[in-house]
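Tip: read the tokens left to right.
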């Protein structure tokens, strides 16, 4: 992450090159604000994911404003809390587009929330960033998806887990919606490619919290590894029940979701130590950029603030990518900003370098594998600049710019 001075010079150079701002000698505060909106759950069942995203959105906007704003204009941020209610997502997306007249919206957590907002924001021609990790396949020129997808993480993670735990038999537990269903298929595919197999897959609605019968099934199947794709507060009960049943030292666990809602804080070390996870960001990344970012985050929000998740860090990256694109375009006009983003724009921040892939509007990004240890994440291995291979198999917005759907990626197993 650039220092404040470096970032100010970066934005200033970009806007000056566009002929939009001759110098930074004046104050952005006197210029007409640019409206931006965040639609993230601050309450309700999935607020554990939303709160750190709200913090990082706030931090990024404050940093940009401190550095002179965008095109010499301050950003005016409005937060909406949909309270984990899909109807409110639609309502607030409409409000942000029509009443607030936001130049850009950052928001959504579950895929259902994204798909509630995406057609609304496209209809009202309001640019949209969805920054949470998800199952892949969204193909729409009006949206950018900087978070990681299974093709970026699981391709490396599945064989890593099999080697680390010296096992080939995997039992998968997944949330019963498209993220869990599709991710489970990727796990099976990559397990088979590396000589393993998924012996069973169980799916659970988000409100399920009793896993006693499931634990007995796992005991009977005797797998080498349990792979958790569980989501939400109710599903946290599994980790407690697993440890209480005495299973934790017997069968190792990996997860594609543990920690994206700061589950390491909600569970004890006895319940979570040793779980291995893959994301595009961890607080434990060792870099000057991440050290500076973490320091600013906790200074701003306090030592007891929600931990920084991938979704939060990618929200931070998204805001800076949008600001750089607006500076390059010399305007906040939606289509000109989209074209600037499609030029292969990059931002180097706490998660490393993230670069927009023009064909998919997803990011080429670094992937990290870490182990949960005493409410922290120890990074074990990293893989630089992973392309969105799953979404690129179904989406090419360069050739088909009018495409507008989420493809269900055909995961061959």
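Filled-in amino acids:
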């Amino acid at each position: 992450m650039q220092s404040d001075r470096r970032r100010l010079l970066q934005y200033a150079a970009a806007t000056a090159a566009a002929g939009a701002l001759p110098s930074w000698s004046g104050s952005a505060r006197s210029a007409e604000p640019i409206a931006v909106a965040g639609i993230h759950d601050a309450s309700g069942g999935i607020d554990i994911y939303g709160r750190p995203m709200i913090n990082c959105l706030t931090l990024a906007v404050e940093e940009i404003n401190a550095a002179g704003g965008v095109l010499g204009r301050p950003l005016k941020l409005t937060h909406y809390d949909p309270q984990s209610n899909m109807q409110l997502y639609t309502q607030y997306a409409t409000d942000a587009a029509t009443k607030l007249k936001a130049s850009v919206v950052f928001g959504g957590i579950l895929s259902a929330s994204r798909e509630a907002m995406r057609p609304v924001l496209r209809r009202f021609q309001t640019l949209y960033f969805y920054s949470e990790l998800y199952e892949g396949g969204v193909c729409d020129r009006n949206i950018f998806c900087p978070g990681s997808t299974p093709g970026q993480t699981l391709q490396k993670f599945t064989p890593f887990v099999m080697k680390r735990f010296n096992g080939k038999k995997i039992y998968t537990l997944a949330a019963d919606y498209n993220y869990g269903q599709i991710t489970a298929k990727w796990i099976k595919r990559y397990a088979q490619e590396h000589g393993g197999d998924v012996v069973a897959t169980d799916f659970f609605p988000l409100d399920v919290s009793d896993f006693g019968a499931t634990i007995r099934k796992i005991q009977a199947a005797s797998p080498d590894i349990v792979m958790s794709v569980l989501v939400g507060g109710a599903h946290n009960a599994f980790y407690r029940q697993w440890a209480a049943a005495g299973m934790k030292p017997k069968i190792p666990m990996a997860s594609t979701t543990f920690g994206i809602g700061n589950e390491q804080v909600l569970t004890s070390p006895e319940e979570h130590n040793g779980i291995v996870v893959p994301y595009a960001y961890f607080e434990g990344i060792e870099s000057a950029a991440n050290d500076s970012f973490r320091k600013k985050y906790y200074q701003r929000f306090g030592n007891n603030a929600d931990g920084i998740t991938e979704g939060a860090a990618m929200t931070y990256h998204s805001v800076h990518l949008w600001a750089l694109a607006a500076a390059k375009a010399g305007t906040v006009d939606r289509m000109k900003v989209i074209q600037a983003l499609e030029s292969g724009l990059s931002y180097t921040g706490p998660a490393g370098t993230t670069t927009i892939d023009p064909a998919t509007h997803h990011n080429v990004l670094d992937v990290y594998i870490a182990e949960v240890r005493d409410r922290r994440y120890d990074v074990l291995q990293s893989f630089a600049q992973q392309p969105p291979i799953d979404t690129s198999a179904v989406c090419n917005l360069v050739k088909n710019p009018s495409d507008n759907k989420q493809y269900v990626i055909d995961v061959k197993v």
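Residues 47-66 form the longest helix (20 residues). Confidence is low (pLDDT under 50) at residues 1-27.
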